């Protein structure tokens, strides 16, 4: 039988559920999620193989079109990364949040104007719709905004209708041999996943107390016997942020470390010793050179 293989970009404004959808499709966490917008910073590929079809999903960082501090280097990087993901894809999944249509959604739609690949609209979070009756008329009216290849209401969180969405994507992949082995689910290294999981726990535990100018670098990732030793450096911008992260008598950082270790152990399927360090690196989020040194690739 002929094989099919191709790329599908998942796009949408921050916080609509792109990472949640990716994790749901893959049945495993490859992209971190949180209630705060702008959690996803790096482009992560999620690979799903089903029989003869292989789809490589690209989860893009939220498009920061309305961002107030749009000139910051990190915002420029994130917009560029989102733009790059749209070139050369075979299909685009555009996610919106229920029946809302904001200026940011409109801006994402405008970005898709020159995209020739089919665009599937996923109307997410339908589990949270107060009035289910408003869905059908909305689905009909939203179709006027663009000639969508399909419009699929879903709940990424609960998995509702996600298979139908996948079916729409899979049916649009070109004939090709598979680019990845059939059992591989992400292009990212375990080292990268470990850093992302630490960042997820920080974002979840500290919420709005810590601005998103915080990054995690893995300094050591070493297997010894059946234990993986990981040292992670958390970079923040100011002393005040360091104090918040460490918490009263180190309670906060301990709790972050415990949560992150449990998740990393699940991903690695083995025991982990995790050490966290906090360091101040002033102004990194506004410095293109510093971003490069941390692995953010600015054009
Ligand atoms: N009720 C409900 N919540 C959802 C659903 N999908 C996502 N969420 C929640 O919405 C929030 C944002 O989800 P993410 O997957 O991090 O969103 P994102 O689009 O990747 O966000 P960025 O990283 O900012 O681009 C999280 O709290 C999710 O749990 C859904 O179908 N139903």
Automatic annotation (TrEMBL):
Keywords for the protein's UniProt record, in alphabetical order: Cell membrane, Cytoplasm, GTP-binding, Membrane, Nucleotide-binding, Ribosome biogenesis, RNA-binding, rRNA-binding
Region annotated G1, chain positions: 12-19
Annotated spans, G4: 124-127
Pfam families from the UniProt entry: KH_2, MMR_HSR1
InterPro entries attached to this UniProt entry: G_ERA_dom, GTP-bd, GTPase_Era-like, KH_dom-like_a/b, KH_dom_type_2, KH_sf_prok-type, P-loop_NTPase, Small_GTP-bd
Subcellular location: Cytoplasm; Cell membrane
Region (G3): 59-62
Superkingdom assignment: Bacteria
Region G5: start-end pairs: 154-156
Binding-site positions, GTP: 12-19, 59-63, 124-127
Domain KH type-2: 198-282
Region (G2): 38-42
Topology within the bilayer: Peripheral membrane protein
Residue ranges of every copy of the Era-type G domain listed in the record: 4-175
Task of the protein: An essential GTPase that binds both GDP and GTP, with rapid nucleotide exchange. Plays a role in 16S rRNA processing and 30S ribosomal subunit biogenesis and possibly also in cell cycle regulation and energy metabolism.
Homology family: Belongs to the TRAFAC class TrmE-Era-EngA-EngB-Septin-like GTPase superfamily. Era GTPase family.
Subunit organization: Monomer.
Identification of the protein by name: GTPase Era
Organism in which the protein naturally occurs: Halomonas piscis
